[in-house]
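User: Show me sequence and structure for the first protein, then do the same for the second.

Assistant: Starting with the first protein.
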Amino acid sequence: MLNKKSSQNKEDEDQHAPDVSVIVVNWNLRDYLRRCLKSILLQSGNLAVETIVVDNASDDGSISMLEQEFFEVSRIINRENVGFARASNQGMEKAEGRYLFLLNNDAELLEGALSSLVDYMDTHPDVGVCGPRVVNSDGTLQVHSKGFYPTISRMAGQLFLPRNLRHPAGRSLGLYEFNDDRTIREFDWLSGCALLVRREAVVETGMFDTGIFMYCEDIDWCYRMKKKGWKVVNNPQVDVIHFGGQSMKLQEGAAVGSHAAALADFYARYHSRSATTVFRIVLSTGYVVQAIGWMLAAIVGKREGLDKLKRRFSHGRGRSVK
């Protein structure tokens, strides 16, 4: 269970606890989940690893697959989709490991990733959160996997500056870091798609805010971790593949719009009403400008512009787990 250990029995408990508890939230991605779990088994190495799958009411045969092919994996079966944050918390509550590793169901561990992250955390006790270099299926950097808090200036840079102007002299003027020099460094936040977290940091900070159904729960969590004095570090010397947005493709609703709303909600939690009003104006204006650009692209026959318009203006609440 995720709680504080008394100094009297902490050492004995640590000797018997798993090194890592891997927590995977699943919703209707049976085949990706199978690949994810196989990668955990293959890449556990000398680590003592427990794997916990929290299923959000899948109806695609995920549960049967787990029972038949991964009987050693612990399972929490929800009767409804409770969202990524709440499901992750269920897994963390059950976890016994020294470290908790949140891994998306559409992600795969590559060779040495888990052991390298654990080794780094073992030798850097001030680091509360550590994440790998997250890559696409072709090995290229997944740029939305790490970045900076959504301030007014960064939101403006993200929405109004062309990509080639957002990164002068190696700096980022937007929300995300595009630099891929594989240097270990601190960030404001890392993506929850592959996130190793120290148990003590979770006990001190708390788990995900369950008021966040999806999007920005990882940004909020890292923010609270840093407020408690824990470092948030990206270790790009190890890779994890994230196929990205597979559950999102199954949802009804505007994923981009949901993400924008989540950014505004995060900002409002920690800033004044007047500052939040300015933030929302910048956000909405920026998206209007982008939509106009997509409309023009669609008019001249560019499929990308039409696809983005459809995503932005579709209706309904998203049900993705991540």
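Switching to the second protein now.
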Amino acid sequence: MGLSEIRPENQILKSKDGTSERNLVTEVNSIRAKMNLTNTNEGELAAFITYAIAWPDSFLALVDTYDTILSGVPNFLCVAVALHQLGYVAAGIRLDSGDLAYLATKTRTLFREWADKFKIESLATLKIFASNDINEETLRSLCAQTQNIDGFGIGTNLVTCSAQPALGCVYKLVGKEQTEKRERKKETERSLCLSLLSSLSLTHHRD
């Protein structure tokens, strides 16, 4: 998905006070050009814009799909600045992979740099949330390493224990225009599933 695939009628966002409206894609592109961000992922940016138009008062983006520092956070900030121009305040970002302490520190630095650049104080204090199989030990370690994480998403280790572990899975969606690639992916996944299943068998033993 790219910016050109967002329908024109879905690009418009009214200001928070309802007195005006702007094309959010145009506003974001202007900010992106001003910051010379030519290499951020456009599909990710399109997703952020669409999300922000739907929920401008609670825009919190997952920024580690491609490259957190070189794409995710800059794309998020472009949208956050555009929202500010319409009277909204973005909520923040979520980190879900990689070195969470390092990425949180780098992200906070970017927030402050953009706050100074655009004279928007609220950008400096945007929330940073972290997740990714966080347990008690990880939580203590992250708190000791950095003060830049505002909150944690804890799910798996809250409702499971080591005696009853959970299976972590990742779902990957391929764009519909890439039919051939998608079919190859299906074939690969089907082969993998079959190879896994073929190595298992069910038996019943009487006591």
